[in-house]
Amino acid sequence: MPGNSKILLLLSLCLPLLAVALPQESAVPGGVVILPLAPAATTQPEVRFENKPVLVAAENGLWQAVIGVPLEAKPGTHQISVSQNGKDKTLLFTIEDKQYPTQHITIKDKRKVNPNQYDMERINRESARIDAALQHWTENNEVPFNFIWPLKGEVSGLFGRRRVFNGEPRKPHSGMDIAAATGTPIQAPAAGIIRGTGDYFFNGNTVFIDHGQGLVTMFCHLSRIDVKDGQQVKQGEVIGLVGATGRVTGPHLHFGVSLNDERVEPRLFFPQDGP
């Protein structure tokens, strides 16, 4: 065997093995940025973006930072901090502008648009629980990126759209909506741990799956929840059924992906074909 081939073979044996590809990259608000950090044979770096920990995975022989970009991020230069073996450095990346369309929605239950004081007290309590699920950090050296669609259906609401409910502007759509009949099974897109379940004012019956290193998927408006907090689920396992609970105009699944506590475009984690 030639000398160069022996060196390559030895290097390949030293590198962590990863059978899955990383998400698609899209350097826009609500997108995902991937930055190479160091050879995968070295100590795994620690990365932070806007003072939040960032997912780091080994792929193509390198440690790669997989960064969720905030929907409100401004176009221009941004930076991450990288720590490895006691040394710190800064890496820069550029975010391009993207204008999301506006969606006008009519909600019959006016309290779902303008909650009363009692509703707001409930919403504030629920927000703390939702934040806890989305901000949870679980160490996982093999984060699963080979997502499968949670169900088959028509995409009825795109990620990032600026929403206007009953003529009043609200936050952009932080996930994607997949229309399906009530009772349609919903499957876990990848293995993980159930990090929270509950019936929320806006989201209805909801399940969070923690896939590790700040990658969390979110499933809302379910008619039934079939999992419990702390339960480990496998890819394809049924976690609940499609419904119309919470703030909805009809039965559908709101499916969201959170990365370093930023809601990002779910379609970046799937093959190009739709659900």
Notes on the protein architecture:
With 275 residues, the chain is mainly β. It has two domains: 3-95, Immunoglobulin-like (Sandwich), CATH 2.60.40.1590; 102-269, Glucose Permease (Domain IIA) (Distorted Sandwich). The protein contains two helices and 21 strands. The protein has helices at residues 3-14, 117-135, and strands at 32-39, 46-49, 52-53, 55-59, 62-68, 76-84, 87-95, 102-105, 154-157, 162-165, 168-169, 176-179, 185-187, 192-200, 204-212, 215-222, 224-225, 232-233, 238-241, 252-259, 262-264. Strands 9, 12, 14, 15, 16, 18, 20 and 21 form an eight-stranded antiparallel sheet that branches. The chain has a four-stranded antiparallel sheet with strand order 3-2-6-7, with no helix packed on it. The radius of gyration is 20 Å and the shape is globular. The model is unreliable at 1-20 (pLDDT under 50).
Instruction: Let me know the number of strands.
Output: 21
Along the chain, the helix and strand elements come as HEEEEEEEEHEEEEEEEEEEEEE
Strand content: 35-45%
- The helix-and-strand class reads mainly beta
Quick check: average pLDDT? 88
Helix content: 10-25%
Q: Please give the count of helices.
A: 2
Q: Given this structure, which CATH class of the largest domain is correct?
A: Mainly Beta
For the report, how would you describe the main beta sheet? Answer: 8 strands, antiparallel
Question: Which word captures the global form?
Answer: globular
Q: What separation lies between the terminal Cα atoms? A: 47 Å
Say what oligomer this is. Answer: single chain
Within the CATH hierarchy, at the fold level, what is the topology of the largest domain?
Glucose Permease (Domain IIA)
**CATH evolutionary superfamily of the largest domain:** Glucose Permease (Domain IIA)
For the CA atoms, what is the radius of gyration? 20 Å
- Report the uncertain regions: 1-20
